[in-house]
């Protein structure tokens, strides 16, 4: 699955580390050394995964990586890669078995209405728009549900690998990095921060780190 492909192509500088995982390469590039720093960091996106459909490049802010270094170990990267590949498989399945057949059905309906009921073409088009809207909602909910299921599996795998104490340390380090980067007073961070009481809650926080801007 291609992911932020334009950014992937733009990362031509030397990576500061490279992992080879299951025959695929994951390069890490400091965001600070690229033109993308202000585009992402100023919006609070300190880590961005990109892919050309085969290999991966991770754009990460320097201090952020140092604070959350455990989150970028090869095993964790492998879990994220598996998740992203499964998302790609879901999207390909939807295109093959849903989007393409539905487009063909829509075209057939338009041809039939225009040929047999030309005086009702406007009503036919309106009904078609309603049908398209409804089917797209169903398809979107299906994809969201499947991706969420895969994401939960990835969260549990990372939890089992790192352990809850390390996850809590990572979340605290992330919040501290955010505070320092944007110079947010500690009392304001305390007011806005939700308590992390379970491993699942912790992973919910971690999910945001690498899934932002992944479309």
Give an overview of the whole structure.
- This protein has two domains: 2-63, no CATH class; 74-211, no CATH class.
- The chain is elongated.
- Helix 4 packs antiparallel against helix 5, helix 5 packs across helix 8 (199-211) and helix 6 packs across helix 8.
- The protein starts with a strand and ends with a helix.
- It is 66% helix and 12% strand.
- With 215 residues, the protein is an alpha+beta fold.
Total helix count?
8
Instruction: Give, in spatial order, the strands making up the sheet with the most strands.
Output: 1-4-5-3-2
How would you sum up the major sheet?
A: 5 strands, mixed
pLDDT under 50 segments (min length 5)?
A: 188-215
Structural class comes to: alpha+beta
3D shape: elongated
Which value, in Å, is the CA radius of gyration? Answer: 22 Å
Strand-residue proportion:
5-15%
What's the total number of strands? 5
Order of helices and strands: EHEEHEEHHHHHH
End-to-end gap: 10 Å
Give the helices and strands, then pairings.
Elements: E1 2-3, H1 5-10, E2 17-21, E3 24-30, H2 37-41, E4 47-52, E5 56-60, H3 62-67, H4 74-116, H5 121-162, H6 164-182, H7 186-192, H8 199-211
Helix pairs in contact: 4-5, 5-8, 6-8
């Amino acid at each position: 699955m291609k992911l932020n492909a334009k950014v992937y192509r733009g990362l031509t500088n030397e990576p500061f580390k490279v992992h080879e995982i299951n025959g695929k390469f994951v390069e890490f590039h400091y965001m600070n050394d690229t033109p993308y720093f202000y585009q992402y960091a100023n919006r609070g996106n300190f880590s961005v995964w990109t892919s050309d459909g085969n290999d991966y490049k991770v754009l990460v802010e320097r201090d952020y990586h140092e604070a959350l270094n455990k989150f970028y170990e090869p095993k964790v990267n492998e879990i994220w890669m598996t998740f992203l590949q499964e998302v790609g498989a879901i999207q390909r399945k939807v295109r093959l078995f849903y989007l393409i057949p539905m487009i063909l059905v829509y075209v057939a309906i338009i041809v039939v209405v225009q040929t047999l009921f030309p005086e009702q073409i406007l009503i036919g088009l309106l009904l078609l728009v309603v049908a398209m809207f409804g089917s797209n909602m169903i398809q979107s909910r299906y994809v969201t549900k499947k991706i969420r299921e895969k994401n939960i599996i990835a969260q549990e795998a990372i939890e089992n690998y790192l352990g809850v104490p390390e996850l809590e340390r990572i979340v605290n380090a992330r919040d501290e990095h955010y505070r320092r980067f944007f110079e947010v007073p500690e009392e304001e961070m305390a007011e806005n921060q939700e308590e992390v009481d379970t491993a699942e809650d912790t992973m919910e926080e971690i999910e945001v780190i690498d899934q932002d801007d992944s479309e």
